[in-house]
Amino acid sequence: MIRLSSRKLHVLSDAIGRPFVARVTTNERLPLSMRGSEVLLLDSWTPSNELDGFRGLLLRNAPEEATRLPPNTVVLPPELAYVSDGDVLRISPQDRALAVLYRRRAAFNALLVTERCNHLCLMCSQPPKAADDSHLVDVLLSAIPLFAQDSPEICLTGGEPTLLGPRFLALVRAMRNYLPRTALHVLSNGRSFSDLQRARELAAIAHPDLMIGIPLYGATSELHEYVVQSAGAFDETIRGILNLKRAGVRVELRVVIQRANFEHLPQLAEYVARNLTFLDHVALMGLEPTGFAKANLDSVWIDPVEYKAELKRAVLTIAQAGMRVSVYNHQLCTLDPGLWRYARQSISDWKNEYLAECEGCAMKHRCGGFFSTGVPVRSKYIRALTHAPPR
């Protein structure tokens, strides 16, 4: 697993002001006018280094003498050794803390915008907190202008991002203004959009490549609301989906498969194929065993092999309705081979891993792998595949 933060910075000089956001550069000759939003990354420091104007100095190796160093000089922790040109960091020398907000080399970056939520999903990987965390938006609004304009995709996640109200719209607007060629994926429970005006306000921003990912865990209110632990959620979610599509916003349906709903997957697929054929994508997803899922493991975890038949039936039902459908977060050896064409490598690279059993697998290059987060619960049927199946 790639670490995205550290709270044990080695600070070598006085810190100036509050925590700050800056982009990493290794270009010591950067024009002075461009240095104010950059931290200079060097292997080591010498008095001859030209450091005027940089927001801070990031060193891979601590110097023998820590004299005459510029303000905000810190040593990069070993666990963050991958940090490189174009990455965007939030640095707090006074707290000895550093967070990697954006990785230039990653195909996909996720931005946590709030930890507040109006659901308490049984398997939530990011358990909600009630504290005021509005400072996260301020941080991100400072960071987004520093992201590379050719970034493939960025995700806004939570918590529930729409609880931010106008500030959520401000984030979407900033993404449109600074990164118009970057796909924006927002993970939301969709309930705020049961108010048509909110859906229209989002659509009015006219982001050129926006998708809202909304979960639905069953074809009945009883099942969906049991999973999300919130009364009234089913009706508001469906209305939210309808309103977003009415306003012209693309919608992805996301179904996390767990013990409570695996037997109902075919019925949910029928519901989707009959009533929601206008959806832009449907993702049937394996469980991430962290957060509430870790605490409720006996209630939510089920070996993917045990629902192979239900998953295949659900996927084929949706596909035969002419809809785009994918299988996320699954290992190919746990799926019916007929579903391999729908399987995607969807786990973020910073928390994706493979097991010793995967070595020598002929399909490892196409397999989704495992979450390195949470408890190490795995299917009993993991094995290396000796050959690819015939097409």
Describe the structure.
The protein contains 9 helices and 17 strands. Helix 3 packs parallel to helix 5 and helix 6 packs parallel to helix 9. Strand 13, helix 6 and strand 14 form a beta-alpha-beta unit. The radius of gyration is 23 Å and the shape is globular. The protein has an 8-stranded mixed β-sheet. The chain has a 7-stranded parallel β-sheet with strand order 9-10-11-12-13-14-15, covered by helices on one side. Strands 16-17 form a two-stranded antiparallel ribbon. The chain folds into 2 domains: 97 residues, Phosphohistidine domain (Glucose Oxidase, domain 1), CATH 3.50.30; 241 residues, TIM Barrel (Alpha-Beta Barrel). The two termini are 33 Å apart. The chain is α/β, with parallel strands linked by helices and 391 residues long.
**Terminal CA distance:** 33 Å
Radius of gyration: 23 Å
CATH fold name of the largest domain: TIM Barrel
Strand content: 15-25%
Instruction: State the helical fraction.
Output: 10-25%
How much is the average pLDDT?
94
Please mark out the parts with pLDDT under 50 across 5 or more consecutive residues, or reply none.
none
Q: Count the beta strands.
A: 17
Based on secondary structure, the structural category is alpha/beta
Integer count of domains: 2
- Any guess at the CATH architecture of the largest domain? Alpha-Beta Barrel
Provide the spatial order of strands within the biggest beta sheet: 1-8-7-3-4-5-6-2
**How large is the count of helical segments?**
9
- CATH H-level superfamily title of the largest domain: Aldolase class I
CATH class of the largest domain: Alpha Beta
Q: What's the helix-strand series? A: EEEEEEEEEHEHEHEHHEHEHHHEEE
Main beta-sheet annotation? 8 strands, mixed
* Coarse morphology: globular
